[in-house]
Amino acid sequence: MDAPLPTPLSSLNHRHNQKPNDCNIDGVKAAAKMEGGDKKKKGYGGRGLFENASFMKWGTEDVLGVARHHPIPCCFAASLLMFMAVEYTLRMIPPSSEPFDLGFVATRPLHRALESRPNLNTLLAGLNTVFVGMQTGYILWTWLVEGRPRATISALFMFTFRGILGYSTQLPLPQGFLGSGVDFPVGNVSFFLFYSGHVAASVIASLDMRRMQRWQLARTFDALNVLQFVRLLATRGHYTIDLAVGVGAGILFDSLAGKYEESRKTPTIISITNGALFADAKKPIWDALNASLKCAEKGVGR
């Protein structure tokens, strides 16, 4: 009897413990061709709606193997069903009420403590402003001193889109906001709530530190960012969604800045060929091409 062909789901399960199949590629193709011919003889011939559907090739072992080998996506699938039930049964917040924020609920004791101690609130605001200065200083340092502009480009991307989104949907200032004259923006001026530039800039700096293997500094920034997260919730300076999206924005725009750098640094075949064609005519063509490649490498280094 011919060995069964692997299904898409069984390949997803990564059955590395199986012994290599003795059939060669030609044999597998021949078996598939024969199987297709048998189906045509039986009257299947492309008439079935789900004849070639992936799930038609799944077996019991394949289905059970997904949960065993991929527990995280299975948890996501379960949470999808749970939140679908929550979303369709939860009563919405009426327009006259303030938004419900779980982060505000969790930080109520700290909010009351800061509300009753203005000096403590001012101290924490000042320390947070120092942390913002540390983020800005590091990001500019990587560009101006180390000659690595990725973090700076990422921050420019991030703050530009933050301005667009913040202006497009202007969220109301949370009730109970505890401002301070030493907070950033300094002077307790107005600001966009969505999304948190404080958090996003800290993530951008931390990701750059990890690329440079500055592990201890990255862990310090992450810890300070968590404290900043809690303080912003306690002072009602941001909604929880502002802070969560700030983390995602930092990761996203760091990735986009990296792709932008790669697109600017990759030499093209056209530029190398032009360099070879317009080089000194007295030199052999291979010397001219070699010189052009060296020029391209220098461009990549920059």
Question: What can you tell me about this protein's structure?
Answer:
- The chain has 302 residues and is mainly α.
- Helices cover 66% and strands 0% of the residues.
- It contains 13 helices and no strands.
- Helix 7 (118-144) packs across helix 9 (197-211), helix 8 (150-168) packs across helix 11 (240-265) and helix 9 (197-211) runs antiparallel to helix 10.
- It is flat.
- The N and C termini lie far apart (62 Å).
Could you outline the blueprint of secondary structure elements for this entry?
Elements: H1 8-12, H2 25-41, H3 60-69, H4 71-89, H5 102-106, H6 108-116, H7 118-144, H8 150-168, H9 197-211, H10 215-234, H11 240-265, H12 269-277, H13 285-301
Helix pairs in contact: 7-8, 7-9, 8-9, 8-11, 9-10, 9-11, 12-13
Number of continuous helical runs: 13
Radius of gyration: 29 Å
Largest sheet: none
* Distance separating the two termini: 62 Å
Q: Give the helix level as a range of percent.
A: 55-70%
pLDDT under 50 segments (min length 5)? 14-23, 40-46
Q: What's the count of strands?
A: 0
Q: Give the structural class.
A: mainly alpha
Average pLDDT level: 80
Order of helices and strands: HHHHHHHHHHHHH
Q: What is the global morphology?
A: flat
The percentage of residues in β strands lies in under 5%
